[in-house]
Amino acid sequence: MLAALAGGVGAARFLRGLVGVTDPSELVVVVNTADDDVFHGLHVSPDLDSVVYTLAGAAEPTRGWGLAGETFRCLEGLERYGNPTWFRLGDRDLATHLYRTERLRAGAPLSAVTAEVARAWGLQPRIVPMTDDRVSTVVTVRGPDGPVDLAMQEWFVRERAEPPVVAVRFDGAAAARPAPGVLEAIEAAGTIVVCPSNPVISIGPILAVPGVREALARRREHVVAVSPIIAGAPVKGPADRLMAPLGIEVSCVGVASAYRDICGALVLDAADRHRASEVESLGLHAVVAETLMTDDRVAATLARDTLAAVA
Amino acid sequence: MLAALAGGVGAARFLRGLVGVTDPSELVVVVNTADDDVFHGLHVSPDLDSVVYTLAGAAEPTRGWGLAGETFRCLEGLERYGNPTWFRLGDRDLATHLYRTERLRAGAPLSAVTAEVARAWGLQPRIVPMTDDRVSTVVTVRGPDGPVDLAMQEWFVRERAEPPVVAVRFDGAAAARPAPGVLEAIEAAGTIVVCPSNPVISIGPILAVPGVREALARRREHVVAVSPIIAGAPVKGPADRLMAPLGIEVSCVGVASAYRDICGALVLDAADRHRASEVESLGLHAVVAETLMTDDRVAATLARDTLAAVA
Q1: Angstrom distances, CA of residue A143 to CA of A60, A162, A165
Q2: Which end of chain B is more exposed for a tag (fewer CB within 10 A), N or C?
């Protein structure tokens, strides 16, 4: 069995490669849900959906979110009623949120609903939310009149990640329990991969669920992370604007320092090979690979290199 | 002030004519909500939406439901999750149901939400649901193993109005209160029009809300109905399959008998002029007019004739 911790699009692209080089039915993907939010009364799980849609081959290939060939007719309709529409929900995508919301209201846990959604898309890997409880990433930014708390999507999408970050916290995390299968997967997996996701707001919330960090630390020699930072910049997303204010260097070395207690190895990009010794000095085995996943073939090679790092 | 009792498409087309010949801001439309149902977790009010969309000039012109130029991408997406999709909800239409559902969940009464929706579509008439309480039309049909209860939309849309009707009831009606403004409009209106809607399942539920029938009876000489039956058949919808089993003749005379306690006049089609004396013998003033509303011009003439009947 193989386990993976995943955020959104970067993780999803890596997972596309991973299922090409391993038995997908042996893979358990633990996904961040602290970006989940409610729009128009619907429960939206951006990272779960990015992983499911991407693994299903249905994701929009370049944008980094949503389904390919989407329309936005319903959202246009919601403008009439004055609903905020900065969070773009496509018409087909809405079906997922409607289904999820109705099932959650009926009392089904998110993990059960996620399994149903993954099955509906014909996925072989098991997709598991980090928790069935509500955890919310809150980004505190510097406002004109002092610090302001924003929900993750407000900061990232509505405000385009522009307001300077002062702090990040995960409301509800301390009381959350790992979803069924999360700790079991970490304990039983031959290898655990921390996907190339934002260490602060994608992997950070998963680690904040009580028991997860400890479980990973116990399996440290079997845990390998892929750096989402190449040559001092994130491939996609706002990692730089989140890591620096929290005192984490925006580099593979910063990623290594954030993961040093839970990872035995770090895969870093060839562009960062000169920093491998710094990663090693933090106690992580450094593996140099091509990490910019321009297509599924590169992602598959990266997945193979990643698995080899802790083989 | 002018009041109207309305069901779905037939009423909506009549109201299009009515707003052309009167001051629309003086019109209060009381709409049936016993066809309301929940699909995919969303509160759908078919008659309210037909009235709003039609008065806004946004309704699909021939189909009898929904918005013009609709797409059904979300519904197609819901098929993947095994949701029943026989009730066709368009992508733009879904925006209305999302908005309504979210507002109702937040505690707003349906009458307040309906006013907001009508305002969003720029309507001048006041659109009022018959009640803010939940009333549900239940159609009991003859099944292979005895009587079966179906929700209105199940019988009408899913089963295409085919199962033979044994009985109709309005669950919740006895405990329902008229929405704010309903009784006031009936009491204050110079004229009250019962639109050409199904007398059993469109107007019937409105009359079943305690206080409404009594209020209309007190204003009987100012109440005029338009027969939805022309030459023994409904213009649209299943009125014939509902009236006959309940012992109401499928004709303008049957309509007159159903309304005799609340209406002082009935507008019947020129094709039924030979039955005018039978209507008169039931105590209703019979007015012959062209009632098949092939366009807004015909509807406006019909509206003028209708108002003149009790002037």
Answers
A1: 34, 11, 10
A2: C
